[in-house]
Design goal:
Helices cover 36% and strands 21% of the residues. By secondary structure, the protein is of the alpha/beta class. The protein has a 6-stranded mixed β-sheet with strand order 4-3-5-12-6-13, with helices on one face. A 3-stranded antiparallel β-sheet has the order 10-7-11. α1 (3-15) crosses α4 (59-83).
């Protein structure tokens, strides 16, 4: 099979249309369509169902795309390893982690890392869902749970601690709960809508509830940063990871004696990158930075 045609096929399969694939490949729609038609003719099978709303892969197209994705992922990994200098780490490193941790903790520290390793460039992909490392959607990940795929290397980085906070204005107006049961009588700020980026993010909804039904939040928002902003505004009581709270001015701790859940962090990468210098120096940077960081425990 022609590699150029496979590259075009993969772009169309991912984009779902000839037009969008053409934009990605810098080709005209007609040129993309001709390449796909030629590939279908060479294979003697239809690869796409064509309809007014776009393109859908046929069963044969799905099978081909799975193989092509895997081949291109392996080629990208091999290219990265070959490009890496034997003497020092070099090349692009694609890092993924949750949005809040990436924005608040990791991004401000990348200048230090890249200052020590000027030949390494970083592509930071922030997503509260797990990108597929085996398919090279990213090279390495910082995850708030153990990896679920058996073929990934993992390193436990440490723990994230949580605290319960309220604004001083809220405490003045409504008072503060003295027991977890008294949370029933207070306004709570919760994580909502999407899958939580960290385990137990809404543990306040259930702690101390004898009937088993969760408390509802006065606000539910799919952003830990937005939760903190809402808490600071006096909207309600909430719990957020310690790394988010750089300045406690205007905040008061709530139920400080209550044991809070911690979050385990893991550094994860494919087995193929075990000997990569870029991965090794980034791992060491994370370990050292976490050991020095407030709100994290290595």
């Amino acid at each position: 099979m022609d590699w150029d045609k496979l590259r075009v096929f993969h772009a169309v399969a991912e984009a779902g249309s000839f037009t969008h694939a053409g934009d990605t490949l810098n080709l005209s729609q007609s040129a993309v369509s001709r390449q796909i038609s030629a590939l279908e003719e060479a294979l003697s099978v239809p690869l796409f169902h064509r309809h007014a709303r776009g393109l859908i892969l046929t069963e044969q197209g799905e099978a081909l795309n799975r193989t092509v994705r895997e081949v291109f992922a392996k080629l990208a990994m091999t290219e990265a390893l070959l490009a890496e200098s034997k003497e020092k780490p070099a090349g692009r490193l694609k890092v993924t982690t949750t949005h809040s941790f990436g924005v608040t903790w990791l991004a401000p520290r990348l200048k230090t890392f890249m200052g020590h390793h000027p030949d390494v460039t970083v592509s930071l992909l922030l997503d509260d869902t797990d990108l597929d490392l085996a398919m090279r959607e990213a090279d390495v990940a910082i995850r708030m749970h153990p990896p679920r795929q058996p073929d990934l290397v993992q390193r436990h980085l440490g723990e994230i601690r949580n605290q319960i906070w309220a604004a001083a204005d809220y405490a003045k107006t409504y008072g503060l709960p003295q027991t977890v049961e008294e949370l029933d009588n207070h306004k709570l700020v919760m994580f909502g809508d999407r899958k939580p980026p960290v385990p137990d993010v809404n543990w306040l909804s259930e702690v101390g509830r004898k009937d088993g039904s969760p408390r509802r939040g006065v606000l539910e928002v799919n952003s830990l940063q937005a939760m903190l902003v809402a808490i600071r505004s006096g909207l309600g009581i909430g719990t957020v990871p310690d790394y988010l709270v750089h300045d406690t001015t205007g905040l008061v701790p709530v139920l400080p004696e209550v044991k809070k859940p911690t979050i385990d962090m893991y550094f994860v990468y494919p087995e193929e990158l075990r000997n990569s210098k870029r991965v090794a120096v980034f791992r060491d940077f994370l370990v050292n930075s976490i050991a020095e960081s407030k709100g994290l425990r290595g």
